[in-house]
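Good day; I would like, with your permission, to put a structural problem before you. The record follows directly beneath this note:
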Amino acid sequence: MYRMMKSGFVSSIYGSGIGGGIGGVGGVSIGRRGFCKFAIDPFVIGEISLDVLEAEAQGKNVGEVLKELGDEDLQGFCRVKGFLGEEFGRDDLLRFAEEYVHDERVSRRDDDEFRGLDDQQKCKILHRVCCGEGSATYIDPKTGYTVFSAFAHLERGHCCGVSEDLESEKGYARSHRCRHCPYADDGTLKSKSMIQLSRNLSVVTSAREIVEEELARKREQIEGGDLSQKSTETCDDCNRTGRVTCARCNGFLYVFSPISQRCPKCDGKGTHPCVSCTGWRPKARKGWLQT
């Protein structure tokens, strides 16, 4: 069931010996695949995400990577990403995982496929990925406004639009409702998907930190194209350069939502590595000002 990776992103995690590595003690690697049988393991979720990014950077079929997962790990990955089925088979999980990975990739790219979607579809994909990857906000593609995700609302721990009202028959009053508010009118969680996400907040956060830490350690190799076995000479998205203009700031280095600040997506450089032929992806937005 467990498949130890010894190449690309994941080998450096398990074989690093830094602080015992992930799931390791004193530099000794310990296989964690299959641990989702007992509880959803953020290390496994992070490793799967890194496997997917590596496969994309190398131009491989991501579906084949997902098919190699054990049943428990595949189910754990799907649960964290929002799968709600009660009765399901492996094919259902694989279909969901492939759809999510597709949406995650599309959300990172400003290509013809994404631009061809209507605004409602774009927001749906962006919000789905926010909840799966642990991002607090996304940018509304139509208005340019910063929008809180349900993940951010759940991290807050309570509904900002509900307050106690002892004079009311209900005992509470609602002043407003955010676009992705996960709470019912009385401020409680009733949606199955939001209850599941609230239970997995720490898993999503930990998996996100594992992925971002590894991508940060591999930053020079990613930007140099060393992790990509897919030749940039065949990549039309970056015009064979390995880099693209940042779609968030349009190459102007700064953004103005909600305040003037250096663009957090490209780190104020105006460009970033191509998401099609490298393993790069932007950091998750952890708060209102990191937009």
